[in-house]
Amino acid sequence: MGAGAVISTVFRDVVVLYETSDGFFDVLENLNQGVSYFDADLRLVFGNKRCIELLELPEKFGKPGTHLSEYFRYNAKRGEYGEGDIETLVRERLALAKKFEPHVFERTRPDGLILRIEGKKVANRGFVTTYTDVTELRSTQNALEDLNKHLDTLVEQRTETLNIVLDSTKNGISLVDRNLNLIVANQQCCEILGVPKQMLKPGVHFSDIMRYNAIRGEYGEGVVEELVQKRVDLAMKFEPHSFIRERLDGTVIEVVGRPVEHGFVTTFTDITEHKKLEKGLRKANEQLESRVVERTKELVAEKNKAEAASRSKSDFLAHMSHELRTPLNSIIGFSDAAISEVFGPVANTKYKEYFHAINSSGSLLLSLINDILELSRLESGKVKLQETIFDPTIPAHEVLYSLKNSAEEKGVRLKCNLNFSRAKLKADQRRIQQILINLLTNSLKFTEAGGTVELNIHINSNGEAELIVSDTGSGMTRDEIKTAFEPFSQIERNAHVSQEGTGLGLPIVKSLVSLHNGKLQFQSEKGKGTVVTISLPTERIIKVN
């Protein structure tokens, strides 16, 4: 209920109570509004305490019989009516009061209090005036007005920003309400859909846009209104949808729609170039698949040829090894007999030198043939490990003992550090011994007199078995390391070092380590020696008490 309605009700109740009730004054004293009643002579009949409080009057002004002019004069003197002659201001207000005309106005007091003052004539008996404090009400109204203005400004700004954003995107965007009336559509909608700008103005109905498209044949042949109604019926379901439509000019559009609280948003994306690229990629992929099939056939044929060649090589090497080893064994055996002078002394010592040379060359050739055959078997996958559980320090000591004389003759110190207590190794003992022989022999070969070759066997911090062979020899560069692991490769290092051998030692070691699922690390620096570390996995460590 508004303030005016409340005041009118108060007037009515005041008159009724005055005429019919003895409790009239008690009721007025408890009102939250100020009430005054002046008689026909403009003398106060009654003024409640709230009236005195709101007008900030001395208590004496609440005394019945006080003339209205006294109130006007008091207010004029304290500046309630603004500047001017006091008596003039009083006379002007008295003249108005004597008319006994209904009046309503608001007055802002010097302290900022806003009073709504409403006076009504009481038949032949003066008039009743109510005073209502509307300061808070007016403050709230003003705040609401300011807020509305601010919100209007924000809406305008955001609408402008939204329009800029919508026009900046590459996609067409439209929004319709629940009645399918267009709310907004950006410029890209017009360009992508190929419709005039006026067709996408706010308020245009969805059916009008569909009709425009149907008339120009965008939806194919058919009765225009039937084509339109079909699309209107689908739109009225407000269900999410996504489809691709190819326009008459060849443009391909992706249309995605989704319902929102008050309508439906649709985006239109020109995917013409994307479809062209997709088609090109599909064609290229088909060509690539065709080439892959052809190349696969070629590779399979080449693989079959390589496997056949490998089998032929292996068969040839096995056959040749057998054919060569038989006469070589005879040569070595006969030369041993001649050197030992089994059938009597050799008269000419020169012949004895020749026998030693024949024996040495035959033994070397037999070793080379064995290495070639071994690598061939490793490459063909014919080597199977004969695993047992053993103490790796045993074959290590055997290898070191076998190389002791060679090291002493060359003046190289042979060291070992074998720490494999409370554990054994599950591996092929003969192959582990073969690995150690190849590595230690290689280190002795390239370490000059005064140098050191060391073998270290232990369990590392990761629980792996490590076999480490290190030397202070001539060392290698990175390129030389790479070459060293290529079969039949020889590295030119020191002119004083014998280059006998096939260059198969390291490739054989690498293959044997791989058969044991181990890892091989090769560290070397020119002039500073070499360290070869072989790590065998933890599952090959057998703990013992």
Question: What does it look like?
Answer:
By secondary structure, the protein is of the alpha+beta class. Helices cover 49% and strands 21% of the residues. It has 15 helices and 18 strands. The protein has helices at residues 3-20, 24-29, 49-55, 68-77, 86-97, 135-168, 187-193, 206-215, 224-235, 272-340, 349-379, 393-410, 429-445, 478-484, 505-515, and strands at residues 34-38, 44-47, 103-108, 114-122, 126-133, 172-177, 182-185, 241-246, 252-260, 263-270, 388-390, 413-418, 423-427, 452-459, 465-471, 519-525, 529-536, 541-543. The strands form four sheets. It has a five-stranded antiparallel β-sheet. It is elongated, with a radius of gyration of 57 Å. The chain starts with a helix and ends with a strand.
Write the layout of secondary structure elements.
Blueprint: H1 3-20, H2 24-29, E1 34-38, E2 44-47, H3 49-55, H4 68-77, H5 86-97, E3 103-108, E4 114-122, E5 126-133, H6 135-168, E6 172-177, E7 182-185, H7 187-193, H8 206-215, H9 224-235, E8 241-246, E9 252-260, E10 263-270, H10 272-340, H11 349-379, E11 388-390, H12 393-410, E12 413-418, E13 423-427, H13 429-445, E14 452-459, E15 465-471, H14 478-484, H15 505-515, E16 519-525, E17 529-536, E18 541-543
Parallel strand pairs: 12-14
Antiparallel strand pairs: 1-2, 1-5, 3-4, 4-5, 6-7, 6-10, 8-9, 9-10, 11-13, 13-18, 14-15, 15-17, 16-17
Helix pairs in contact: 4-5, 8-9, 10-11, 11-15, 12-13, 13-15
